Amino acid sequence: MKKKLLSLLGLTALFGLLSCRAEDTSEDSSAPIVSSEPSSSQVEEKNIESINLIAAKTSLNIGESLKLVVEINPSDATAKSVSFESSNQSVLHVSNDGILTGISEGEATVTCKVISENDQEFAKEVKFTVKEVPVEGVKISNSNQELSLGSETQLIVEFTPENATNKVLTYVSDNSSVISIDQTGLMKALAIGKAKITVRSDSGLFEDALEFHVVSEYTKKLNEAMNKLKDSESIEAQTGNLLKIKGIHQRKGMTSQYSENTEVQFFSNSVNIAISETQKIGDDSTKKTSKTYRGVDLDHSRYFNFKMSDASKGMSEEDLLDVDFKDVSSSFSLDEMKKDASLYYLDDSDSYGLLNVASYYSGKMLENLKLDESLKKIESTGNGFEITYKGLSKESTPRYVDMSLKIIANANNSIQSIHFVNKIYKKTNLDENNLPKANASTNESYDYLYEMSYEGERKTYEDTSFSPSMFYFTSLGIKTYYQSTDLDNHKYFKVGNTIEIEPINFSPASAMSSVDTISVTNIENENDSGAVLLTEEGILKAAKIGKATITFKTLSGLEVRKEVEVVDDNKVPNGLTEITIDGAIKNYLTGNNSLKAGEKHTILFKFQPTSGSQEFSLLCDDTETVLEKVEGGFTISRNNPSTNTIYVTLCGPYDYTVRLRFTFTK
Q1: 7 — pLDDT class (breaks 50, 70, 90)
Q2: Cα dihedral 570/574/577/580 (nearest 10)
Q3: Most buried among 62, 106, 404, 618, using CB within 10 Å?
Q4: Does domain 137-215 sit in CATH 2.40.50.140?
Q5: 384 vs 351: CA distance, rounded Å
Q6: All structural domains of the chain with their residue ranges
Q7: Strand locations in 466-517, DSSP E?
Q8: Which fold has domain 472-567?
Q9: Mean pLDDT of the residues in the chain
Q10: Second CATH level (architecture) for the domain 4-131
Q11: Percent of the chain at pLDDT exceeding 70
Q12: H/E/C letters for each residue in 400-453?
């Protein structure tokens, strides 16, 4: 007997005959419709003999939907009604038209009832299992880690897989006075500073952390403006560019006041020659003339001699081999330097040092003035910006500062000019409103103007890989560590640590990672543990407990493999306990411990936590000091008194180190 599948259209709908089988349930209401009332051309309808309830599968994930198909036998029989019922709608919901939706973890039976035209009832049931989709990882994906003071920002967290069922998270800030976060993931920037935000999944207890910085609205605008300048297009010209710096720097109340005129010729991003004339105010004679090459005093420096056989093609391999040093002396000719300093083209320009000037004045200079952050103002001015400040400084003895820093950029965002004007008034020259008195003289005043002009045809060399060969590594090792102040080369890391890297034991000594850049090309996580991850920002993170081998590659092609291990935080020592020296109990050993020369002293201790490994080794640079390991510690002795402190490094498990200090007396 032929069979057709009936796709349910609804309790009040008529039913169509479908041609699909159990293994193909994709047909739906597009199937042909058969009227329940026969026409004069139709034969008498047959009664239903049996039904089948067909599902593509009997296991669903929470949130997943599936359409049931009803098969009626014989295929030309008709039904008066069809209904569905779930034994547990809180686990598995079924709609009137047979659509299943997983609601929660568990089991449920779906029953389909069909009433024939002669009022016979047919029923079929299928048992279904609804499962949770487990979380396999979480990641904070906010692209901007800079928050404006007073702002509210939603933390964005991505789940792996995307359809994970339990997306409940716990949010923690390690500095809630700077950034608070509620359990919806809403961050509030409360004070200037930084805080690390950690998220932990309820399912699987996966974690991710990201550090956010709270800055004033002024700082945020300044960073945006400076980043725009950093993205400027190249402005190289074949015959070099000329930067003229004119400025007057006056300090009242001092024995001398000088004006400064500086002319800098830039021949590349790293090669420039500057001539500065410093002249005493009111005196026509030049007080002092200084000459610098690459920003270094010519009388005490040497410089790289760049040459290119074909300037239009940039530096060739042969050119790189010909780069050498030349000593600079006071009699060295500037014209000779200009001749030797061939152009060196780069894809991206830093505006020939003007970006450094802009960074200095907008950063370090204003920081030195100790200004009140709330009084700083920044406004866009066409292709640039202007910073202004009028008010008291935040010094123990406040001064009034009237400052303006105006930066004008070209259409391509390269810097055209920088104008810095600053007037400082002592407290004695201010009125009762802390404003400068009429005709008050300044204590200090600055007026510097930097202008860039271009000579010759603009020309860009797009291959940034060429630099003198002395800047490239021929061999190196990679040091891994987890904080900037750490001098040790670490193999072990805790979950959440950022894995910092640094070249070590390299040659030649002149090689630089800023030129021969080091990148991560591969991470092999043992047993797919996901122990180490590389973020989109290029940061290595210790993510989960496990081992990994990281492959590093330099721009010049050298590869270095480094094994690291992410370990349980509870296993890593965090200090010493149960410390005794010759039986005397000590609370700590970080101070200078005085011992008697000519005797053997016993130092006993345990690492905290005491449940962890107690293995250790000893290091000491003093050749006269004798160290011997004993059960639970070590002995130390020295025949002669020591004139200097003796340092003993205790190397515990998982890269834990502590340095102990001893002196030996008579």
Answers
A1: very low
A2: 140
A3: 62
A4: no
A5: 14
A6: 4-131, 137-215, 241-454, 472-567, 575-665
A7: 475-481, 492-494, 500-507
A8: Immunoglobulin-like (2.60.40)
A9: 76
A10: Sandwich (2.60)
A11: 69
A12: EEEEEEEEEECCCCCEEEEEEEEEEECHHHECCCCCECCCCCCCEEEEEEEEEE
